[in-house]
Amino acid sequence: MRRAAAVTRRMASAVGMREASTATAEAAAASSSAPRSSWRRALRWMPTSTDHVVASEKRLLSTLKTGYVQEQINIGPAPPTPALKARSSRDEPRFINTVTFDSKEDAPTLVLVHGFGASQGLFFRNFDALAKRFRVIAIDQLGWGGSSRPKFTCKNTEETEAWFVDSFEEWRKAKNLSNFILLGHSFGGYVVARYALKHPEHVQHLILVGPVGFSPEADPTAESLTKFRAKLAHHLWEYNFTAQKIVRGLGPCGPALVRSYTTARFGSFPTGESLTKQESSYLTDYIYHTIVAKASGELCQKYLFYMGPFTRKSLLQRCRVMHCPYIYAV
């Protein structure tokens, strides 16, 4: 029995030594991997990730007084347009980042759609005021902001319009919305106008704030300007060279450029107000992470517009037959 006890003690001692050795090795590995992880973060060309986009949105919206719910609304595995469906991968997620603000039960629903290269967070200074009268729902269009960024497979204007209009309709079905007020800013105005033309039965009122896409298709000014533009600039446009690509190309210097833009663009308002230091910091961070993420929706530009704000297929004539009341706000 003494011999058995001695063997047991030796085995326990050996096991303890092995466990201690393993723990020491794991600690050493963790210690050595920490600097490598830090170096990877420091040397990453674009200091961003999907987690950064989500975190920056939460920080920006934390400046609001109104409560909200953030959702990723699934809009199906593939677009309904046959040509786009054939070119799309079913392995890519398709969802719309959606923020719904607290409101009174009987408040009318107001859906906000952002402009080109933007995202719903840029409305952040408007949310509190609007939520007092409306049930405000703000979205990131497919391929922008915190929404999924599937591969952009459109080949012409019709397919590109369908990319945005159909994804919005799929989102509306998933949210079970109808009879709502629809507001679009800039490029968002173009998208919601096309949506209202195709699905007028769901739109109670349409509000277009500084919309693009309402210049004549054969604009003489656009044609004359195109003749005088450098060939290089024209080729860059046709190859979908976007402002976002410039920021991505600057790598770790990109945040500084975005900070300068944010200060110049949003530093003060006509009312005399200005962003607080915290708001400016959060907004800069948010804009940077949303614009340097994977290119997707931004690649629509060459199919919808000539170089500059001149539309390839004007909405000017088409909106004259619109079957829902609308407001054009400059």
Largest sheet, in brief, is: 7 strands, mixed
- H/E topology pattern: HHEHEEHEHEHEHHHHHHE
Report the uncertain regions.
Answer: 1-43
Strand content: 5-15%
Strand order of the largest sheet: 1-2-4-3-5-6-7
Q: Radius of gyration over alpha carbons?
A: 26 Å
Helix and strand content put the structural class at alpha/beta
Q: What would you call the quaternary organization? A: single chain
**Quick one: overall form?**
globular
Mean pLDDT: 81
Tally of contiguous helical segments: 12
Distance between the termini: 95 Å
How many strands appear in the DSSP assignment?
7
Helix content: 40-55%
Q: Which helices and strands, and how do they pair?
A:
Elements: H1 2-43, H2 50-61, E1 68-74, H3 82-87, E2 95-101, E3 109-113, H4 124-131, E4 135-139, H5 157-175, E5 180-185, H6 187-198, E6 203-209, H7 220-228, H8 231-238, H9 243-249, H10 254-266, H11 277-291, H12 301-304, E7 326-329
Parallel strand pairs: 3-4, 3-5, 5-6, 6-7
Antiparallel strand pairs: 1-2, 2-4
What would you say this structure looks like, in words?
The protein is α/β, with parallel strands linked by helices. 47% of the residues lie in helices and 12% in strands. It contains 12 helices and 7 strands. The protein has helices spanning 2-43, 50-61, 82-87, 124-131, 157-175, 187-198, 220-228, 231-238, 243-249, 254-266, 277-291, 301-304, and strands spanning 68-74, 95-101, 109-113, 135-139, 180-185, 203-209, 326-329. Strands 1-2-4-3-5-6-7 form a 7-stranded mixed beta sheet. α6 (187-198) links the parallel β5 and β6 (203-209). The radius of gyration is 26 Å and the shape is globular. It starts with a helix and ends with a strand. Mean pLDDT is 81; it is low at 1-43.
